[in-house]
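call fold(seq) -> tokens
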Amino acid sequence: MSSYTARTLPVHRGPAAWSIILGDPPPPQQLDGELTADFVVVGAGFAGLSAARRLAQLQPGATVAVLEAGRVAEGAAGRNSGFMIDLPHDLSSSDYAGAGNDAAMIALNRQAIAFARSAVEQYQIDPNFFDPVGKVNGAASAAGHTHNQSYARHLATLGETSEMLDPQQMHDLTGSRHYRSGLYTSGTVMLQPAGYIRGLASGLASSGVRIFENSAVTTFEKQGSAWQVETARGRVSTGTVILTVNGHLESFGIKRDRLMQLFLFAAMTPELDTDAMARLGGKPRWGVTPSDPMGTTMRRIDTGQGGNRVITRTCAALRPGMAATQRDLARAARVMQRKFDQRFSQLAGLQMEHHWAGHLCLSLNGVSVTGEVEPGVYSGCVQNGLGTARGTLTGIAAAERACGHSSDIARHFDAEDQPKRLPPRPFREIGANAVLRWKEWCARDE
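ret:
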């Protein structure tokens, strides 16, 4: 193919709360008119901005244009829970342990974290937005505790340390009596995802990368020796296109019927007043992932990250049309309120200020789509629900391959299989959502 047209543009349900709590960003620069660039990066999330930074490192004199459909940090990058995890975190398993070379994946994830840390230092991003505090797998049931024990044993075989927390330690951390145990690991970085992405974009812009917001790519096609990348109001002529649009790769007709478009849902409290914080107790910052991957993620943040708030994330829906429904969001809001009340009875009934959906993309066999699509077009997509670390890696790999550079990161993605073909519709949607509901029910306390 030498012509690609977007059939679907991003649709977001609910606000990008992580961005809202930081206040208004600077006014956007929209692509207007014609431009020439050495590289065009489509998408300004973790993958896209990491690709832009890697391009700048490999070819300092090159001109790089990044085209973002909406505002920076208001798409998927500003809608995740902000866990940049170094360890195996396979969402399809019972206890996160992967089936492949976990030691190699840990090494790659730590390279992603090191890349992000160096960006924080280089661009003087607020360190509150990149907090290497670690995380806890929380267990509320005997089955959940068993999952944690299994995961701890798996980590030990990899030479990785962990610490089991008892109910009192979990209460001291979170203020909740809900958890019977927790497994602490120290290598996770807790991001304020919108703050980190805004800071990364600002730093890149100050170093010469041109970032255009509200500039959704509608078409790109080969004309002569160059690719013409079109938006509603402009066009960029370039030799190289790098697609970092995660599941929207399928919108351009690439890997159709091989990508699972999944939505997870989250809610955020209003800023807690002094009385609410006293009743809540616990530490001012923590992150708890569920011992069962289909359980509920909880997180607490403080004033350095956008106010004293608690974030709840749970529920999942497969939507091949790449848009969650209002009904999906309403159902998730009810479930999340119940989960919050269950964990924090001292604050039960506190109404959430924000609810939103976040778009993930997975493949059936857990691989990404990273590498050359055709001459002059590269992909750094499909993060399999691990957008912060895996997105950083796919962006780096796509940029390296576009520059003819090789590294452990690029070679890892070169060696991955193609994503497996999905069952036909409507069976894939009906079947997958039935399985998701069943797994949610099984993990209802986690």
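The longest strand covers residues 33-42.
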